[in-house]
Design goal:
Belongs to the transposase mutator family. By secondary structure, the chain is α/β, with parallel strands linked by helices. It has helices at residues 10-18, 22-43, 91-109, 115-125, 131-149, 206-218, 233-242, 252-261, 268-279, 284-298, 303-316, 327-330, 334-350, 356-376, 384-403; strands at residues 58-68, 71-80, 160-172, 175-187, 193-201, 226-229, 247-250.
């Protein structure tokens, strides 16, 4: 990761505290210094420096306005004689920041915002805006987000997939309606996490989940082994219809909440410890023995909790079939929950989306950036042991199947 030495003058620091827009001026000064450092790095020479390694010459700068949450910035982008200056400074920023600004603009234009939101938007944009301004920004950003969200998944196999949904409010037909945003995260054959996509459904119904899973299939999502989610009857039925043969694992965090809700408060600590031991058992046989013992001891003191455990045992212990190193990362939907928290940080600024397109634009742009960081960063899981284990399972299943085949007649 490149490191840059930044200098700030006294005037900029005074403006930070004494003038409106002081933060914007400070950020503008820092980013302009970063651009100058990057062009020096690209040319292998400072201004007026004589060196054999020099790869070109500066040719002034071009102003490049961008809108941020701290105000409008004018960056001086370096020009190179007989060449082109390249920087990644704007690429990731532009998608999520523009999506936020456009959503705020749309709120004001469609009359769904308060006066405060209108004032915030004016400060963000640094200028007046119109429907044509919003339309021009959408035309640049929407195709990028749509292309990412509709991309083919054929390039990889995804044995592990985690799914979840969050509810946002959208103004439709003159009314504010709650809608479900369904999100899928996959772990590919190399162990890297990817955000597979998002879709808006009318609710978390079986029909919505089935449409979501069918959409993922149409993009060539394949080779699923385990899908992790919260317990939702419609989701499970849709999964069994669209991805027959894959295993559903119930999120243990949500399961424990449901179980403790059915437990007398005086027994919460004891029940949690005992059930946690069941879920952390080394294998399914041990887990079943511990479960039976728990049911016997708490049948009279916590009958509702025993029933919750009995009913959900197979689904909440599904990951015990996997090698131990994969269980911790797959036993809950915590990874998707953290994504939801990031989305909520942005969604709280909007509160009510003006339309469905703005939801896809804002959330999609944010998820694109996270997806880029995941797929270019550190590997999430070492999958070598999994594929070896899976091959052994397939051989074992084939041998068992052959053993039950009738002998062919001579």
């Amino acid at each position: 990761m490149a490191q840059y030495q930044i200098t700030l003058n006294d005037e900029s620091l005074k403006d930070l505290f004494l003038q409106d827009g002081g933060v914007a001026k400070l950020v503008e000064q820092v980013l302009n210094q970063v651009l100058q450092a990057q062009v020096t790095e690209q040319l292998k020479a400072s201004p007026y420096e004589r060196t054999e390694e020099r790869r070109g010459y500066r040719n002034g700068t071009l102003p490049h306005p961008i809108t941020t949450r701290v105000g409008r910035l004018i960056l001086q982008v370096p020009r190179i004689r007989n060449g082109e200056f390249s920087t990644e400074l704007f690429a990731r920023y532009q998608r999520s920041e523009q999506a936020l600004v456009i959503a705020l603009m749309e709120m004001v234009i469609n009359g769904v915002s308060t006066r405060k939101v209108a004032q915030i938007t004016e400060e963000l944009c640094g200028t007046e805006f119109s429907k044509s301004t919003v339309s021009a920004l959408c035309k640049r950003l929407d195709p990028i987000v749509a292309a990412w969200n509709e991309r083919s998944l054929r390039e990889h196999r995804y044995p592990f997939v985690l799914v979840d949904a969050l509810v946002v409010r959208i103004r439709e037909d003159g009314r504010v309606r709650p809608r479900a945003v369904m999100i899928a995260v996959g772990i590919n054959e190399d162990g890297y996490r990817e955000i597979l996509g998002l879709m808006i459904g009318d609710s978390e119904s079986e029909a919505s989940w089935r449409a979501f899973f069918a959409w993922l299939k149409s993009r060539d999502l394949r080779d699923l082994d385990i899908v992790v989610s919260d317990s939702h009857a419609g989701l499970v039925r849709a999964l069994q219809t669209e991805f027959q043969g894959c295993t559903w694992h119930r999120c243990q965090t949500h399961f424990m909440r449901n179980l403790l809700d059915a437990t007398p408060k005086s027994l919460h600590e004891d029940v949690y410890t005992r059930v946690r031991a069941i879920l952390d058992a080394p294998d399914i046989q041990t887990a079943r023995l511990l479960k039976d013992k728990f049911a016997e001891e708490y049948a009279e003191r916590a009958p509702k909790a025993v029933k919750v455990l009995e009913d959900g045992f197979d689904d909440v212990t599904a990951v015990l079939a996997l090698p131990e190193r994969y269980r911790r990362r797959l036993r809950t939907t915590n990874g998707v929950e953290r994504l939801n928290e990031e989305i909520r940080r942005r969604e709280r600024v909007i509160r009510i989306f003006p339309n469905r397109e703005s939801v896809i634009r804002l959330i999609g742009a944010l998820l694109m950036e996270i997806d880029e960081a995941w797929t270019t960063g550190r590997c999430y899981l070492n999958m070598e042991e999994y594929w070896k284990w899976r091959k052994e399972q397939e051989v074992s299943d084939q041998q068992e199947s052959d053993a039950h085949q009738p002998l062919s007649r001579l």
